[in-house]
Amino acid sequence: VTDASMAGQLVDVRPEGILKCVDGRGSDNTRMGGPKMPGGIYAIAHNRGVTSIEGLKQITKEVASKGHVPSVHGDHSSDMLGCGFFKLWVTGRFDDMGYPRPQFDADQGAKAVENAGGVIEMHHGSHAEKVVYINLVENKTLEPDEDDQRFIVDGWAAGKFGLDVPKFLIAAAATVEMLGGPKKAKIVIPSISPAQIAEALQGRGWDAEIVTDASMAGQLVDVRPEGILKCVDGRGSDNTRMGGPKMPGGIYAIAHNRGVTSIEGLKQITKEVASKGHLPSVHGDHSSDMLGCGFFKLWVTGRFDDMGYPRPQFDADQGANAVKDAGGIIEMHHGSHTEKVVYINLLANKTLEPNENDQRFIVDGWAADKFGLDVPKFLIAAAATVEMLGGPKNAKIVVPSITPPQIVSALRGRGWKASIVKASTMSSELKRVDPQGILKCVDGRGSDNTQFGGPKMPGGIYAIAHNRGVTTLEGLKDITREVASKGHVPSVHGDHSSDMLGCGFFKLWLTGRFDDMGYPRPEFDADQGALAVRAAGGVIEMHHGSHEEKVVYINLVSGMTLEPNEHDQRFIVDGWAASKFGLDVVKFLVAAAATVEMLGGPKKAKIVIP
Fold first, then answer.
1. What is the Cα 532 distance to its own chain's centre?
2. Which of 133, 245, 467, 563 is the most exposed place for a label (fewest CB within 10 A)?
């Protein structure tokens, strides 16, 4: 499963949270948000073959030095032997896997961890875990729920501590098996981000932009079980069962992605699609019969050979008959292809409908995830299909808007006070964005800027580079020109006391304060960045005075902004602008919050909505 399907469950790892056991039971621990490994820090010792008390103490200190609170645990019925992982280890159940036993017992291990600065956690209740989550999304975790138990294994943490990751995961699986736990796992992986999709398409010579569901009001519809899972083809059709998801070739996309080439395999996929609540289909057209599906024709004639896809062992008629025999539907298209755009829809359980009078290819990317496909391969194959069929190299990537309540919840989880306010209550303060106004930093201080009315983002246009991972001067110049092409005056800023390092956001980025969030540092200093922006047509703003911001406004009203007031300072973050520039909006907002926190600003936010 992808992190996108786990929205609301995955949380950021917090330094105050304990690095704890994967155990799903209730606990006396109140320090939530730490990574989870079998037996807590015992997992590190076990994987490395560390068996001494001194070695365990060193690991305790190492975990603390890497920003986590080290822990081991017991439970209320068996004291320190209440950790099943340690009990298996100390009693030799891992001997045949080549792991030496610890030279200390459970009480001695707990005391050593405590003496070295770690924490002892105590669990209570019985094991009732139903599933094992293996989480590979770096610096994220899930939290245990004693009323709906699950084992949680943060696989990324094994990499952080330099462990042998396959051995770590095999030991975790063996632990669950030996303890009689559920042999059922969900492996949580990072979704390919919308920005990465756009970048990959642009690298193939496409025009690609990210749009939110809010901008598609009236076009996106709920997926309906009576709608056929059909091809992305935008032409007219004899199909009247609308509202199903769309994939290249219909269910052929699933077979293609998995390397299924047999008639029996195709029949199994047909039944699987039906079992998951959709009507399976493939299609032909009125001019070429069952070879009227361009995707299948490319596949059967070997056009995907150089991408590593084996050809089907059946022809178009045999495939259609197999699908029909297994309970699927045959759709027939008519007319010529005149698609103008490719929609790649990432909103789960939503779709768009074809319109033969205004054609578009529709690729429901979320459906690839639902059927456990390799999503990057699926999307690359979809793009290649459009290219080989001479379709439009123009894509719109449809992403969910993060909701205001989700923003409030996320901020409160970071210890902020946050509330939602309606634009109507701020009618005298919200201003329409002026194309003459500079796209500037969120900084609330006074400024030499007289070009007001532009959108506000952390560090001005640095926010765009930061979010996209652009670290070069040439990349920064390109962003400067892009901002201008989209109707804004690009800018970065300094201040009168620190010159171009007076932008706190850039200083944090340059000095590595975002390293642990996965942002690469810029390959230029503050002066070089400012000169590059100016050379590409941008503006340099200079702030003055001290920071005295009292609140952070996160403005979601598209095309509107607020203005700074040096006598009543506030940070102003125009969240809608992140979407306009195709950024990862969630990462953008998290980075904005982290910036305020690291600069000692107010942990108080007002989210402005239409």
1. 31
2. 563
* Location of structure tokens 């704890």: 20
Name, in order, each residue with C-beta under 8 angstroms of 155's C-beta and a sequence gap of 6 or more. Answer: 134, 135, 136, 165, 168, 169
Which residue's structure tokens are 């009125």? 286
Residues 6+ apart with CB under 8 A from 326: 266, 267, 268, 270, 271, 280
The DSSP output letter for 30 is -
For residues 40 and 47, the answer to whether their CB atoms sit within 8 Å is no
- Give Cβ neighbours of residue 88 (< 8 Å, ≥ 6 apart): 94, 175, 178, 179
Block residue for tokens 């289909």: 281
What's the whole-number average pLDDT of the chain?
94
Amino acid at 533: V
Measure the CA–CA gap between 326 and 280, rounded to whole angstroms. 9
Residue type at 522 in one-letter notation: P
| Residue pair 136/188 in contact by the 8 Å Cβ criterion | yes
Identify each DSSP E strand in 155-299 by its residue range: 185-188, 207-212, 221-222, 228-229, 236-237, 279-285
- pLDDT, tens digit, 9 for 90 and up, residues 230-244: 999 999 999 989 999
Strand order across the beta sheet in which 342-345 lies = 207-212, 394-399, 342-345, 361-364
Of 1-5, 55-59, 252-256, 398-402, the one with minimum mean pLDDT is 1-5
CB atoms under 10 Å from CB of 150, counted, come to 19
Q: At what angle do helices 404-413 and 585-598 cross, to 10 degrees?
A: 40
Would you say the pTM of this structure is higher than 0.90?
Answer: no
d(CA 130, CA 150): 6
Task: Name residue, tokens 């050593």.
Answer: 112
For strands 119-124 and 26-27, give the pairing: antiparallel
Q: Angle at which helices 473-485 and 526-535 pack, to 10 degrees?
A: 40
Nearest by Cα to 336 from 297, 382, 391, 381: 391
Beta bridge partners of 235: none
